[in-house]
């Protein structure tokens, strides 16, 4: 009996070894020698940057939402979205693309940096991850942050309060700036700064400045401390238009999303709000932001009122209204993440609030000049523009001076322009003509239906904490 048991044991063991050997052989046979076992950080970085750039310029987060809400663009056809009938697919796509593409890839880059000892990949990944979260919370409010992009731990992450997200991002960006070592290991796949780590540090610090001003009305003590630290050495911030954080696109098929969209569509025009303001201010950016009408018109530039009924918009005429300027529809037109003018406007506001001791009027003039220089306006024309009484800085209503000029300087940056308009409340835009929100404008995006279905408990908790899941619910940062 013992012999039979031993014999069976030997047979089973032999078969196990045989099957194990076969499995190993099959695995070896099925290995693709041309496929990387570990993700390449340079490919991940380039792909994720472009993915996020496409989001902030594309239909979902820009063309069909924020550029209309902030009245940079308007619709002359298919006008429902311009009346605030927001597409559920646009709402879902922003969330899905930022979480499952950009944030996932940036998290992997951080991990690779930690595993390989390359602190610069770690830092750049953290900067871009923070930027992605900033876009999400600006648009939706409370969002999954601490538990997000950790599918090995949870598939249903909790939502963090917007205040906690902003404070967490300030901490993460400081850590990233401190990690950067310009003399250390290089990074590849950098389609923003081409491996210039000094500029990445400036981008991190400038993002901190942006977020500090974002919370200034609700948490002025924290905002002041961050700004004072950053302003102590302004060379550590973006300090020229050459240092603007942006992705410059290439020719087709890697062209600017606006350029790609214009190849088959002609339903957008420059908003009447923008053209009227540019004409009122005799602003030299008018022919850059808008094209002249194809048919002759009294002023050459005619904007479209936001939120017109479809038949009223159509009657204006495709050839008698101004299309978006060629600068913004060119294949290589950049996706701007954070520009020099914004840094100066933020410093001007910080000075006016007493966070720093600089002269706010000087910083404001420098900010306006930087925006005009960005669009290649001549020195003489800049001087003429700044000398106008309508442009002179008004310390008694700094939000109007900064808000209106920042609104123009952020033209083409839909999500950021929309957020700053909500925060500063200037310019004072009239809601869409035939809007569906009872005479109000959107103050956020609603959460995607996917969250309601797949993360229901945490979604409900977020709504209970933040307020009704409506376009008109104010976010925490939006104090006034």
TrEMBL record:
InterPro entries: SusD-like_2 (IPR041662), TPR-like_helical_dom_sf (IPR011990). Pfam families: SusD-like_2 (PF12771). PROSITE patterns: PROKAR_LIPOPROTEIN (PS51257). The keyword Protease does not apply. Keywords: Lipoprotein. The keyword Lipoprotein applies. This is SusD/RagB family nutrient-binding outer membrane lipoprotein. It comes from Dyadobacter sandarakinus. The lineage of its organism: Bacteria, Pseudomonadati, Bacteroidota, Cytophagia, Cytophagales.
